[in-house]
């Protein structure tokens, strides 16, 4: 439990939740800017994705070298090499990667929507209406992205990336502000102590 108001423990907790709120605000700002400039957000997300693949490939290669006496050595080397190669391709050609991933996302929306539509009609469960709406929305979204491809690759991934930043930031802000309020409530002196201090 946190100590009384002003103790190092409560101040440290409040500071930590304050930093969490600040990080959430930065993410929200990045999400809003990304929604305004979706093309830049798409290219940024692709470059970040490429660097994540590169770092993951290097880490996997180091782990494979450290476990070179095991049976999984060559599997680790192959997976690390694939990650490194994919990272280089993504960084060197972020536009082409965005086009390919947008096509994949559109096909995913389309097939998922069709399966939901067929499943809702065949099963007709208690969530029939909601599943039908979800399926129709998935099919519509997939068709819209496909019909505007490859131009849609300039904004679809950036929009998703920015929305993820926005909602993650809002979640961090809620956790940070709620945590600070909880620290204040827990560390506040009981009412009888306040009355005695006034006396």
From TrEMBL:
Membrane-crossing segments per the record: 17-37, 43-65, 72-91, 103-123, 130-147, 153-175
PANTHER family: PROTEIN HDED
Superkingdom as given in the UniProt entry: Bacteria
Name of the protein in question: HDED protein
Keyword field: Membrane, Transmembrane, Transmembrane helix
Protein species of origin: Streptomyces enissocaesilis
Keyword Transmembrane: yes
């Amino acid at each position: 439990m946190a100590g009384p108001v002003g103790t190092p423990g409560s101040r440290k907790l409040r500071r930590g939740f304050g930093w969490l709120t600040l990080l959430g605000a930065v993410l929200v700002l990045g999400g809003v800017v990304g929604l305004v400039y979706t093309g830049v957000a798409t290219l940024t997300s692709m470059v970040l994705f490429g660097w994540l693949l590169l770092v993951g490939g290097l880490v996997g290669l180091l782990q494979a070298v450290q476990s070179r006496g095991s049976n999984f050595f060559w599997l680790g080397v192959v997976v690390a090499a694939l990650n490194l190669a994919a990272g280089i391709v993504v960084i060197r050609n972020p536009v082409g990667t965005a086009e390919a991933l947008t096509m994949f996302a559109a096909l995913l929306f389309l097939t998922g929507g069709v399966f939901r539509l067929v499943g809702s009609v065949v099963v007709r469960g208690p969530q029939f209406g909601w599943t039908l709406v979800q399926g129709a929305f998935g099919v519509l979204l997939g068709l819209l992205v496909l019909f505007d491809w490859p131009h849609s690759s300039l904004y679809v991934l950036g929009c998703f990336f920015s929305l993820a930043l926005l909602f993650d930031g809002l979640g961090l802000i809620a956790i940070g502000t709620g945590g600070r309020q909880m620290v204040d409530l827990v560390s506040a002196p009981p009412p009888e102590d306040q009355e005695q201090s006034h006396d």
